[in-house]
Amino acid sequence: MKKVIPLLLLVFTIVSCGSKKKAADIPDDDSIVYILPVSVTNALKDKLDGNYKDVYFSLIQEDGNYTIYYDYKMSGSKINRWIETSKRKILIDKKLYPLIFGTDETFAVADRYKAIVEGANSGDLQFLQRISVARNRNSIRFKPDGTIIR
Asked: Which of 5, 48, 86, 90 has a Cα at 20 to 30 A from 104?
């Protein structure tokens, strides 16, 4: 019995010191995972050059083609709420990253649920703040079959 206790303590110590996955590395069961064509994923990997920290993606459909924008979270930005809570994820290098849609910009609001309900009850929804996604040069335009346009 005296030998069992130190052995159990040793096993417990080894197990508890093992590496643990971060919550961001473990997908939610209710996440919606998007897989882009291989050519687009490879182009994104080339452009990002391993710099995935705080990156998010925005997907827009225009004229039957798609544009995927990528940018990095900025502290204090109202869009961070959507980035952090989005259930839509894009798969790159076996990891998931937040994905928002162009329609989020048109229809989503930056206000919290309580403010929205209070505004709806008072009949005044004009105060709602829309989110805005930066449209910068960090993008890839492609056809549905994965052919990169630019």
From this structure: 48
